[in-house]
Design brief:
Elements: E1 3-7, H1 8-11, H2 14-23, H3 38-49, E2 58-65, E3 68-76, H4 78-84, E4 88-96, H5 108-123, E5 128-133, H6 138-146, E6 150-161, E7 172-174, H7 180-189, H8 196-199, H9 205-221, E8 227-231, E9 238-243, H10 249-252, E10 256-264, H11 271-285, E11 290-296, H12 300-308, E12 312-323
Parallel strand pairs: 4-5, 10-11
Antiparallel strand pairs: 1-2, 2-3, 3-4, 5-12, 6-11, 6-12, 7-8, 8-9, 9-10
């Protein structure tokens, strides 16, 4: 197929692209939560995708394929690239310009457009590309399959209204810098073989372990999380981090918060449900009304724990990866 790629934001202004993405049925990441403002949720996502980027990080292209325009929104991941010592990027969107692709539509033209941009990315030193994909987006799934992307993780999102609970309380506290060593060890040792770092054979076990440790350190002392809840003991080996997302509460018209990263060692067997329950209590105390969590669809024990606490299924999501 004949292709021609041009920098997207040099061809269209951001407002035009935002409108086109809306017409292409792009939805916000939390649209499965009916109580929030879905238009605002989508606008936050599009603002992130269309924000100004440094020239070396901008891989957003308009590609003409046999007269049809496709938008490929790819960006480099500078932090990840430095941490893993390789060129990494993320595909945010692959759409027909300003329209919604049909569920039965062949993905070959879009795949040709994506391949054209991946060639540019490779010429800039990118060799690892992530691509989140909704199971509903059959056109994107076909396009990723045709361009050699591999599935490395399937996630599910659960959520609940934070109504007052009447269950038993448990002794927990917020983690501090003195807890980093024991919690980093827990994150490293309690391996989930199905998360995207451990499931990807292109990632070494050592790099995956380093990533878990770094997340804990960044959560507790680097501001990556707003709080980390642990059992109220010395050197705890169980935790759950959380983000409040207060900056979006007004726009969402919903005070939505998110437990993020968790692990529980054998020393604290049975504590996972207790920590999530106590974290929900903490989120209520800071004014949150609703909570959502994400895990791998293979994580049956965690999903059962969530359901026991009143969480319900929201949506699924695939994570693909291609090596260039």
């Amino acid at each position: 197929m004949s292709t021609h790629a041009t920098l997207l934001l040099s061809l269209h202004d951001a407002a035009t692209i935002r409108l086109g993405l809306q017409k292409a049925a792009i939805s916000g990441p939390h649209s499965f939560i009916r109580e929030l403002d879905a238009d605002y949720d989508r606008e936050v996502l599009l603002e992130q995708w269309l924000r100004p980027l440094a020239e070396q990080d901008d891989l957003r292209y308009s590609v003409q394929v046999n007269g049809q325009e496709y938008w490929v929104l790819l960006e480099t991941l500078p932090w990840d690239s430095t941490f893993f010592s390789r060129g990494m990027a993320r595909l945010n969107a692959l759409v027909k310009a300003g329209e919604c692709a049909g569920l039965r539509e062949d993905g070959a033209p879009a795949a040709a457009a994506l391949d054209a941009v991946l060639a540019i990315a490779k010429s800039r030193g990118i060799d690892y590309v992530l691509a989140p994909a909704s199971p509903n987006d059959l056109h994107l799934l076909r396009s990723l399959a045709k361009t050699g992307f591999e599935l490395i993780e399937t996630r599910c999102h659960y959520h609940r209204s934070l109504t007052p609970a009447a269950g038993q309380r448990h002794a927990t506290r917020m983690a501090g810098p003195h807890d980093v060593a024991s919690l980093a060890r827990t994150a490293r040792e309690m391996v989930n073989p199905y998360d995207r770092f451990h499931a990807d054979i292109a990632m070494s076990d050592q790099d995956a372990d380093r990533m878990m440790e770094r997340w804990i350190e960044a959560s507790i002392v680097g501001g990556f999380a707003d709080t980390t809840i642990v059992p109220d003991v010395d050197e705890p080996e169980a935790f759950c981090t959380a983000k409040y997302h207060r900056e979006h509460w007004k726009g969402w018209n919903l005070r939505l918060a998110q437990p993020v990263l968790s692990a529980v060692s054998s020393r604290h067997k049975g504590w996972y449900v207790r920590i999530i329950s106590e974290l929900d209590e903490h989120l209520r105390s800071i004014g949150a009304e609703h909570s959502f969590l994400i895990t791998q669809i293979t994580n049956n024990a965690v999903i059962r724990s969530w359901e026991k606490l009143g969480y319900r299924f929201g949506k699924g999501e695939h994570i693909f990866r291609r090596l260039l």
